[in-house]
């Protein structure tokens, strides 16, 4: 006859909170960098006492395992290149990641304005086929809206869209 599990059974010594926190941090940092704020939230979710988490995060910063400035620079480079995000959208993402405003400004300051325009231009080139055949005003609105959602200013968005649509309308072979 099966016996019910003994719920009062001794499961061994309780894990040391500092060891648990260290393992959580190392697991979180495996594969990609994370902001200090993200790591603090993860420790809190796992029930690690705040003072232990703060002490370990300070130590991880001292040895270079946690570096919000490096994280912000990497985040900006990846998100601008991969998603075509502009400064404004990147600033919002960094704020959500808990990056200090000054650190975020430094990372965002590394974006070349010409690169930002080129990113917008490439986004429009990828999407222009989807607006072919639409009323030109409607095509402009859709493409400008797409750039606005990526954080591009209206002046950059309108300029890039008008330039790309004029090229496409003048030369149908431009689409490939």
TrEMBL record:
Descriptive protein name: Regulatory protein RecX
Domain of life: Bacteria
PANTHER family for the chain: REGULATORY PROTEIN RECX FAMILY PROTEIN
UniProt record, GO biological process: regulation of DNA repair
Broad class of the protein's primary localization: cytoplasm
Residue stretches making up the RecX second three-helical domain: 67-108
Gene3D superfamilies: Winged helix-like DNA-binding domain superfamily/Winged helix DNA-binding domain (1.10.10.10)
Biased composition (Basic and acidic residues): 1-12
Upper taxonomic lineage: Bacteria, Bacillati, Actinomycetota, Actinomycetes, Propionibacteriales
RecX third three-helical domain residues: 114-161
HAMAP family per UniProt: RecX
Domain RecX first three-helical stretches: 21-59
């Amino acid at each position: 006859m099966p016996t019910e599990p003994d719920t009062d059974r001794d499961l061994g010594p309780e894990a040391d909170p500092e060891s648990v926190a260290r393992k959580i941090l190392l697991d979180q940092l495996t594969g990609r960098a994370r902001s200090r704020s993200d790591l603090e939230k993860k420790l809190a979710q796992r029930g690690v006492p705040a003072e232990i988490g703060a002490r370990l995060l300070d130590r991880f910063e001292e040895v270079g395992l946690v570096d919000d400035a490096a994280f912000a620079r990497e985040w900006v480079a990846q998100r601008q290149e991969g998603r075509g995000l502009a400064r404004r959208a990147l600033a919002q993402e960094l704020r959500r990641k808990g990056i200090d405003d000054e650190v975020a400004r430094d990372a965002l300051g590394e974006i070349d304005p010409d690169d930002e325009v080129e990113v917008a231009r490439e986004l429009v080139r990828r999407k222009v086929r989807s607006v072919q055949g639409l009323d030109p005003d409607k095509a402009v609105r859709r493409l400008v809206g797409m750039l606005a959602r990526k954080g591009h200013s209206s002046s950059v968005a309108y300029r890039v869209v008008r330039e790309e649509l004029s090229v496409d309308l003048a030369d149908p072979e431009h689409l490939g």
